[in-house]
Request: fold
Amino acid sequence: MARLTRRQFARLSATGAAAALVPPAIAQTTAPLIARAIPKTGEKLPAVGLGTAAVFDDDDAGTRRKAAAVIKVLAANGGRLIDTASTYGDAESVIGAVLGAAGGRQNFFIATKLEAPDAAELQQSLRRLRTQKVDLLQLHNVGNPRQSLEQFYAWKAQGACRYVGITSTYHGDFGAVAAVLGREKPDFVQVDYSLDNREVEKRILPLAADVKAAVLTALPFGRGRLFRAVRGKAIPDWAQSFAGSWAQFFLKFLLADPRVTAVIPGTADPAHMLDNLGAMRGALPDPDQRRRMVQFVASL
Ligand SMILES: NC(=O)c1ccc[n+]([C@@H]2O[C@H](COP(=O)([O-])OP(=O)(O)OC[C@H]3O[C@@H](n4cnc5c(N)ncnc54)[C@H](OP(=O)(O)O)[C@@H]3O)[C@@H](O)[C@H]2O)c1
Reply:
């Protein structure tokens, strides 16, 4: 694996051959894996997962092959978390088919999102994911401070999910997110956080810590914006001790905040998945290095 160039691997993954090539464990280093405790239970979650917005939209043979290759790399390198939503095209069906074919549902932590506390929507998600229970059920895009999680907690008690959560990436709605987070005390909150988008540091991350909510960071690369900002640039010398790639630079900035439970970069590329999983091993930047990272990105 290490001898394949990214281009070779991408070509193989496009044909589906990559899945067969990935050995059971291709850890990039022998450093221990970073796994964070879910505050309410202490259950450990590997700190790099997979986001699935826009990447697995069409349930066809090509998408299933791509998803199988990415998910195989995720699992072979200690990852478990897959984040999806009822509204991400056919992503739930694609994930359900891949995990069903591999017989590996129990090896993954599946997080999905509903638009509303709607039993029909929940049943559709469970059916598409080919599971009787998701690990995390999130209320998507909270925008009203009075939204209740009562139905989500009832489903948790009935065994349809193990954890409940809320999400938003709309900063205008963060007042509502804070109200729901403080009152309903979900197990998880998912918000957008990246090196050039640190709004959550003001209010949401401190509140999440207060109510013991695990934090998933959506949009860790700003939908690819950070890669475009550093195109053609080398990783600075002072960061090379902890970041082997730009992806690891961006993700390790987030993971260096102990309030962050896991990052969920989106990718349809197995080589990118492997790169991202590298952020789960080795040193994390210290507070001085983190400040320097912010200055560096702000100066671009
Ligand atoms: N309200 C919500 O709850 C909400 C909203 C938005 C997003 N989310 C969640 O957050 C996840 C992440 O967001 P996102 O996928 O939109 O954006 P993102 O993770 O910030 O960026 C994804 C982009 O980065 C590229 N990329 C990934 N790994 C790379 C690597 N190692 N090297 C170079 N490029 C790389 C991807 O392209 P390739 O495919 O080529 O790798 C893609 O273009 C979503 O998938 C979703 O699960 C939740």
Notes: The chain is about 40% helix and 15% strand. Residues 51-53, 55, 83, 113, 140-141, 167-169, 190, 218-224, 227, 247, 264-269, 272, 275-276 surround NAP (CB under 6 Å).
